[in-house]
Amino acid sequence: MGIKSKEMLLNGAAELGVTLDDAAVAKLFAYKDFVLEYNKKVNLTAIVSEEDFITKHFLDSLSLLPELGIGTNTKLIDIGTGAGFPGVVLKIANDALDLTLLDSLNKRITFLREVVAMLELQNVECIHARAEEVLRTRGELRQGFDYAVARAVTKLPKLVEYCMPFVKSGGEFIAMKGRNYNEELAEAAGAIKRCNGEVACVREVKLAGDEIVHSIIKIRKM
Question: How far apart are CA 132 and CA 180, in angstroms?
């Protein structure tokens, strides 16, 4: 971890309203190194440069943190988590989070279990399953979470159908999308209504060091 990279992370996080302590910074860079080493044998990410990793994985994930009201036993499920973005990053930034990581590819879940052990993260469960299947086999997960999040998984109408069943009444599903979200949001209106949801807000975020505008769509279960 170079001084320049650390400053890039801390300054970018501060622009998002997020403060990281030294322990969190150290864990994030250890996580990055582990992802890139593991990436040589299992395809986890196409982003391998340090600057892009900080911006497109760490800062993008951290942009969700101000949207979360994290208290004692706040439960979050990251659906289609891949290499653990945003879930693992959020957990490192705020250890109070009770985290579930869900992915359909077993080799990613194997990787994530190694990450959790290496970083000594507590209250993290890694589940190998598809979202639509796990609700049948793990009924306790239905309406079991304050937040469900999904990043770069599929189109919003399908995401709503997959993710909203995990959210308890009064909780929120948060989708991470690009700038051109309006068409997807319009197409998802029927699914949102069927799942007893309403759009709470849409926030556009421009990350430090990135020209791309990201969008955070919050859908509250009524």
Answer: 26
